[in-house]
């Protein structure tokens, strides 16, 4: 089985379409949250994601904030502005869909969360020490998570911090308990502006990170038109 694992679309329909148009062969779609926030296309992205076949999707912190479930003060100023904007334009069906999203999903020996298995919506797993600590919080062999917008592979058996795999077509066989992060489709932060996602085979236990270039200027135009902070447009061109 080939699964497209993606996270942090952040209302960027152009990036999402580029990924989906390339990966038409997959058997299932697993989304790790934050469909909305930052970008100009919240309803369009939710509509596109919810129609995917064999979909599992969990709730991210921007999804929760859009639902009004968290204090917006916990976000930085510009992220907060985008949440206020998203709340204004989001339609009832989109809200209903976000509300339906669970914080954790499971498929056989795999756990899906947005942030971490300890605190599914909010924790960041940014570094080796944190990742090692998180292994005590899930029973399955693999935990898929996003939230950091930086692709990573953390293996429990590793003795030193592995480098984040940022190259195209990096394929890994999962040999031990592992945390996998596909990076972000709609707002990568590893200084590579290409949309980032993973192709996971839960039967063969293989993971492959993929990147794809998309038309950033197209999204920037819609950000400008919507009145969202221009900083959100600038960062897309450089991946920060
Ligand atoms: Zn995010």
Outline the structure in words.
By secondary structure, the protein is an alpha/beta fold. It has a single domain, classed as Purple Acid Phosphatase, chain A, domain 2 (4-Layer Sandwich), CATH 3.60.21. Helix content is 30%, strand content 19%. The chain contains eight helices and eleven strands. The strands form two sheets. A six-stranded mixed beta sheet has the order 3-2-1-10-11-8. Helix 7 runs antiparallel to helix 8 (231-238). The protein binds zinc ion. Zinc ion is lined by residues 8, 10, 34, 60, 62, 147, 149.
Main sheet properties:
6 strands, mixed
Q: Any idea what the radius of gyration is?
A: 16 Å
Going by CATH, the architecture would be 4-Layer Sandwich
The name of the CATH topology is Purple Acid Phosphatase, chain A, domain 2
Strand fraction equals 15-25%
Total beta strands:
11
Tell me the strand order in the biggest sheet: 3-2-1-10-11-8
Query: How many helical stretches?
Result: 8
Query: Unreliable stretches, pLDDT < 50, 5 or more residues?
Result: none
Mean pLDDT score: 93
Can you write the helix and strand succession as a string? EHEHEHHHEEHEEEEEEHH
Span of the ends, CA to CA: 33 Å
The CATH C-level name is: Alpha Beta
Which outline best applies? globular
